[in-house]
Amino acid sequence: MVTVRPAQPTDGEALVAVHVAAIRELGSSAYDDEQIEAWAAKKDPSGYPVEEETAHFVVATRDDDVVGFGHLALDAAEIRAVYVHPDHARDGVGTTILEHLERTALDAGLEDLSLLASKNAVEFYERHGWTSGEWVDHESTGGVTLECLWMEKSLPG
């Protein structure tokens, strides 16, 4: 069973581990080695906005292990992250995180959300009712450009 809870500063190392593993394994189907290494670079345990007031930052756990995370920027009505460790991919973890973030946005009174999807994640979001916008160049943390897709979704209600 997967549980979603607010992320804590003590989750930093686990967040980095999930983030880097997901990028390297799941992102490699859509980007070249240079892009993957740049995207995975410079991840710092203290660099996740787990205590920011306008950030709804959560982790997904299974048997007390962090297996994924999500970030909803409430002030921007934007989902900024849904990452799942590859050992738990395609097992409902990403869906659980995404549904939690969407419910939180709806409860906060938001009507529409946007996100910037990596090429390897577009199909996942489309399956969950997100629609495609335009392709854009996004600069990774390592300074390399990744082609990503702006997507949006109107929330029910």
Automatic annotation (TrEMBL):
Q: Would you say which domain of life the source belongs to?
A: Archaea
PROSITE patterns according to UniProt: GNAT
Report a single Gene Ontology molecular function. Answer: acyltransferase activity, transferring groups other than amino-acyl groups
SUPFAM superfamilies with a match to the protein in the record: Acyl-CoA N-acyltransferases (Nat)
UniProt keywords (A-Z) are: Acyltransferase, Transferase
The protein's matches in InterPro entries, at most eight in alphabetical order, are given as: Acyl_CoA_acyltransferase, Bact_Acetyltransf, GNAT_dom
Q: Which Pfam families match?
A: Acetyltransf_10 (PF13673)
Ranges for domain N-acetyltransferase: 2-156
PANTHER family to which the protein is assigned, alphabetical:
AMINOALKYLPHOSPHONATE N-ACETYLTRANSFERASE-RELATED-RELATED
What's the protein name? GNAT family N-acetyltransferase
To which species is this protein native? Natronosalvus hydrolyticus
